[in-house]
Write a structure and sequence with these properties.
The chain is an alpha+beta fold. It has seven helices and 13 strands.
């Protein structure tokens, strides 16, 4: 299903549950997504990465359940998912409301913080689908980041990866971003909140009297309303700033 330039994978979850459980459980270890399931591995090897694009998975793309939804009609999809830590970044709530009603995640540069995320190693045949689920060119930019201080579970290091960065920026709550509490981090300086609190912050920012479930349901049901909400919420959003970043044209 495509809503406002965004491919929304189908789900059997109740819409409110789907939004409030974002970004969904993810293993604290490496795994290979194959046949719709996560197969744990001690650590990825070079063969798992060969010929694939390293894309930071900062939100739901870390989660096997979300990968299963995004690639449900592509049973041949194989994705190696590698647990990593990256310095001077944090995962925060964006001003973007996903097509299924969640306050989505984005990256923010936060010197000193070391965030625990993943890399999805995606083959070229899977990139178009992943781009479509991120709303490239409308909601997110696909960027290449250099100069990263990244570490794998096996101690290996990396300094380059691709990422999806929200065009609308990070949601500002009383002038500051809020970290996604489901994403671990060391030396975190931002306040971390859960999805329900992020929804509440969005409601308050918009000056609405809605309950969280009603707000989610309204955004899922009405694309025009959802886009208006995020446009208003993004007026004072915080932009992502990385010294060595290149936007990749995927058109």
């Amino acid at each position: 299903m495509t809503l406002g330039g965004l491919y929304v994978p189908p789900s059997d979850l109740d819409p409110v549950t789907r939004a409030l459980t974002y970004p969904y459980p993810a293993p604290a270890h490496d795994y290979v997504f194959r046949n719709g399931r996560a197969e744990p591995v001690a650590a990825l090897d070079d063969a798992d990465r060969a010929g694939r694009h390293p894309v930071l998975a900062i939100g739901s793309n870390r989660a096997p359940a979300q990968l299963a939804r995004k690639f449900a009609d592509m049973p041949q999809a194989v994705i190696a998912v590698e647990r990593v830590r990256v310095s001077d970044l944090d995962v925060v709530y964006s001003a973007h409301l996903s097509g299924y009603g969640a306050v989505a995640a984005t990256l923010l540069r936060v010197p000193g913080t070391r965030v625990e995320i993943s890399i999805t190693w995606l083959g070229p045949e899977l990139m178009d689908r992943m781009h479509a689920t991120e709303g490239i060119g409308t909601f997110y930019d696909y960027v290449e980041l250099h100069g990263l201080d990244g570490t794998r579970l096996d101690g290996g290091r990396f300094d380059r990866a691709f990422a999806y960065v929200c065009r609308l920026g990070a949601l500002a709550v009383d002038g500051a971003a809020r970290a996604v509490d489901a994403i671990g981090a060391e030396r975190r300086t931002l306040q971390a909140i859960d999805q329900r609190a992020a929804q509440g912050a969005m409601i308050a920012k918009l000056g609405l009297a809605a309950t969280v479930p009603d707000f989610i349901a309204a955004n899922v049901a009405d694309t025009t309303l959802r886009l208006d909400h995020e446009a208003r919420a993004s007026r004072d959003a915080l932009a992502f700033d990385w010294p060595a970043m290149r936007r990749v044209d995927v058109g």
